[in-house]
Design goal:
- 84% of the residues lie in helices and 0% in strands.
- With 478 residues, it is an all-alpha fold.
- It folds into 2 domains: 1-228, no CATH class; 273-478, no CATH class.
Length: 478
Amino acid sequence: MSLQKQALSGVVWSFFNLFLTRGAAFVSTVFLAKILEPDDFGLLGMITIFMGIGTTLADTGLSTSLIRSVKVDDRDYSTVFYTNLLLSVVIYIIIFLIAPYVSVFYNQPTLTDIIRVYCIGFIISATVSIQNTILTKDMEFKKLTQYQMPATVVSIICGISLAYLGYGVWSLVWMFLINQTVRSLVFWYKASWKPILVFDTDRLKTHFEFGYKLTLSSLLNTGFKNIYNILIGKYYAISVLGFFERSQTFQHYIVSTMTSVLTNVSYPLLSKIQDDKEKLVRVFKKVMTVSFFVIAPIMLGLSVVAKPLFLSVLGEKWLEAVPFFQILCVSGVMYPLHFLNINLLKVLGRSDLFLKLEIYKKIVLLVVIAIAFQYGIYGLLLSSIFSSLVGFFINTYYSGKLIDYGSKKQLIDLLPIMLLAILMCGIMYFSMMLLHDYHEFIQLVVPAIVGSLFYLFMNYLFKLRPIFEVLNIIKNRK
């Protein structure tokens, strides 16, 4: 299979995988939100940082190094496997011991048991990290989809059943653990790779030298990504954190699905052409503009129809989450661009620059949050938009230096798309106002259809390149 067809297949199957698995999980949380209370999701929002930190530390960036490396064998894979597994156990023990102090910090006694049980998940996840890495490196996203689906289906059935039986927040905890357990069993049964009894310290050192900077970067990113949860959970009612957590989950489903597809496919794809600068720039530009063409109208459009969306899907008890969701959608427009630019540094082997960028961005974020926190919950949330914009210019600094495609050139390519997406939002808002007296479902669907048709027509009329790239992808799949 040619590199282009392999990439195309990777995009389709990666998206299909994420759409099915995360889509099914998303639908399940909609049902759970109708059964459970905002406080239950607030409790879960308090502990997600531990899962993120634990998973990051357990991997130490070694899997990323394996994907990037041209020549790897079972000695590399087995060495990284044992390292990840050992680290995951050590980190779990640490989290187990500090759990009571976290409960005291939030003044939520039930958190101790929740943290100790929930975080078992990253030990389970570590047992299949290499199988997942190998399939990603080989761009076998079809197999990843097939292996993940049983875990998704079983965990959703169990989670919803437990919620109906009155288990509250524990239905969310057990749904996650069941997903990880079934996924691990399927991977061990289906994947061809199995570890051998070898541990090569020289190869560990090679991968660690590249990966540890990525780990530090990921730790910074995980910590600061959860800083809103920490501040809201500490200084506001737990129900407010519940509203924020659901809003973030809704927004994150769209953003993370798109970003994960880009990361999963673009990293191994660009790694294969890392030595051909001209081709690297061409492919990078194409991936970036097509991704923005898709994500910008979706995120901005969702912010317009947020109220009828929440009323239709979750009901009136979640209406307080609407402004949270609108702000987060606007801040999420730039996310795929962030990931693509920092992915480029990993492709080029510059994990040192990757770490520098993360440090610069976190310093800016701290300053912004310190100022915004003085203006209440909405000031805090609005700071995410400003931080995202500043983060774009920071992330593109080295792109300009390394491949001569920095922020100015990227913005020139993206500006027409952004203008049409904003104009589309105006059309959607006007349509929604005309339908003010109709059922919320009508207020949701009609503006979405009108806005989408307008956006696609205007892109075609002005002959913007991304729409023709998407049409080629559709045509080549037939």
